């Protein structure tokens, strides 16, 4: 007779079956039903939204809570014969039924939402108006209107309106900070005094208010741009350009229009003009949106305003312009497009640093003639030096360090000109001093 220990040894010595275990029945059924379940769920969701949605959306969270309490009290009263629970359930049901009377009815309005200006600068006054007209053939009872403005909601009281009567309201939108503020839609509200049921009707679409960053005008002498319309000459030689360099012997294939006939007659051999390549004025602005390079949020807003001012000056002078951030290029076809994209910029902590941004800008704009690196005061000289390495040779490079209250100044790190900016009003002065 074998002992238990011997039996365990024999069991462990037996070869085990390899291969996948058979799937349970419910998994196989789920796999077969998956292609049919998804369309059925979508159809059920669409039916719920179109059929039950108009009803369920009217009930507020407080209304759903009261309905659940009514059901629980009714169940307890029926199960245990509690008269108090039955009476409480009846009172709650009467409240729900009575609330229905407040949301019934139909209002016919013509509502117009008007913004005086859809684009303002930080600190400017943004004014809008709402016009409500009774389009019904009979008088309408007083009602309430809601106007979402960003994260807040403005409430307006509309008095009793006769047929064709018009009611107007004016409102002011705060513009203390750069943002894209959605305004609207205007909604009429019907609800009971307890807030159990709430019915809203949308009358207008949403409109966007752009609060552009504050900018400052730069005159021609302080813009710091390359002013030569034909560009600056480089050390690269070319057989066809506008900056004359020297004469050389004719080589087969040279353009005969560049033959210098006086020198040819004097030397007895064909001589052609040789030129230096010129670079068209193209401004590249790299705006860092990595908040780790800024000491405060106000410093980041100063950097956005400075970059927007430089870019807007380039657009006004009809210069070629490219603006890059860690999120990619901005639109620069017009000043309006540039400021709109500047308004949408959001700063956050990123892994991509100023060095990565400089590398991406150099790859995207290889023909730049002026290079601006806009960052905060936290950026170290070693980071600025590493970023300047990616600036192409022969390109005028500036680093703009922005921080509120920073003393205006100018320094050099190799070929990189470092400018300190403490106020947007000083931008023209510091650029004038740093201009070549």
Strand order of the largest sheet: 16-15-14-17-18-20-19
Summing up helix and strand content along with how strands pair, one would put the structural category as: alpha/beta
Average of pLDDT: 83
At CATH level 3, the topology of the largest domain is Rossmann fold
Order of H and E elements: HHHHEEEEEEEEEEEEHEEHEEHHEHEEEH
The CATH homology group name of the largest domain? von Willebrand factor, type A domain
Residue fraction in strands: 25-35%
Q: What is the 3D form?
A: elongated
SS summary, helix count: 10
Outline the structure in words.
The protein has 436 residues and is α/β, with parallel strands linked by helices. The protein folds into four domains: 52-104; 109-212, Immunoglobulin-like (Sandwich), CATH 2.60.40; 232-279, no CATH class; 282-434, Rossmann fold (3-Layer(aba) Sandwich). 34% of the residues lie in helices and 28% in strands. The protein has helices at 4-13, 25-56, 61-80, 83-103, 261-267, 297-316, 335-344, 354-364, 381-388, 427-434; strands at residues 109-115, 119-121, 126-134, 143-149, 152-158, 166-173, 179-183, 187-191, 198-202, 207-212, 232-238, 243-249, 271-279, 282-287, 320-325, 328-329, 370-376, 396-402, 409-413, 416-421. The termini are far apart. The model is unreliable at 221-244 (pLDDT under 50).
